[in-house]
Design a protein that fits this description.
There is one protein chain. This protein is an alpha/beta fold. It has two domains: about 170 residues, Rossmann fold (3-Layer(aba) Sandwich); about 150 residues, Rossmann fold, CATH 3.40.50.2000. Strands 2-1-3-4-5-6 form a six-stranded parallel sheet, sandwiched between helices. A six-stranded parallel sheet has the order 9-8-7-10-11-12. Helix 1 packs across helix 12 and helix 7 packs parallel to helix 8. The longest helix is centred in the last third of the chain and has 22 residues.
Length: about 350
Amino acid sequence: MELGATRLETARTARGLLSGKLGWLITDEKIGMIVQCRGVADALGLAYVHKQVNPARLRRLLAPWILPRRSERSGEPGSLLAPPWPQIAIATGRLSIPYLRALSRLAGPRTLSVVLQDPKTGPGTADLICVPAHDRLRGDNVVRTLTAPHSYSQHRLAALRRAMPPEISALPPPRITVILGGTSRGASFTPEEQQRLAGALAALAALEVSFLITPSRRTPAALLHAVEEATRTRPRLLWQGEGENPYPAFLAHADVLVVTADSVNMTGEACATGRPVYVFKPRRTSTKLERFHEALARYGATRLLPDHPTALAAWTYQPLDSAAEIAAEIERRWLSREAAMAAQGR
């Protein structure tokens, strides 16, 4: 089942059926995993607990196919998996899957289990599996969204836009937010690619814009330096990891965004703004990333960043909010399950 813009209005008007219900978020320590689960939990209004998992040695190597240690899945007080059982459990990442499956055995139908991203263990892993549209997994309980879930709802972005920080308002429009990633399994930022991006940003600087620039944890120093040099001639804010991260404000107050193609999360967050999103794509990217970016371009959210842009294009699209779409689907399935259990007298 593919969720998309046609489901977004339903998601926006969800009645909060699960608001205040207990939820568990099961992830490892990776922030990219945590923010996806939090985005869905916040969209549902859950009162949630984060169950961070850290299997050791053989269990880490063999995840997601091996059970957690017995002491972690005993269901007894002090165990990682112990009552009170949640109404909703949301997991992502291969290390989380053994814990979610163990929870399903312990809690039974009282808990609706949800996996974000392909668990690699088949559709039977959870009650609902949510994957990006470019993923190959299919099944009756598999739903697909164009982007990964995140915490930048339209409500949150609107609140951020009502209070522009003075340091951003001091910059002349148009303001271009530049979101930098780095080398990953799906994309490689060679020195040549770094200079190609720097050249494109220098050409944008010649259009009398201002810049809001934020790197990620994966951004190499050489790439950040190249971007810093390319944008030096224009007014800008460049966050270098010190103090509070201005990323939310940079998203909300962008007139145009430039994002590197290596991160599905960052690109999806940029597409929540409804503002034009230029994607800088290294020449060597994985087939999976190519499918992701082709889908967003077809939708009308993104365009490739030219090597030598001579003008800023303007286009519009319906903002993408996969967390709200997934939340609406979880509510629908939870209601269906509750009705079935009531009919059985449970």
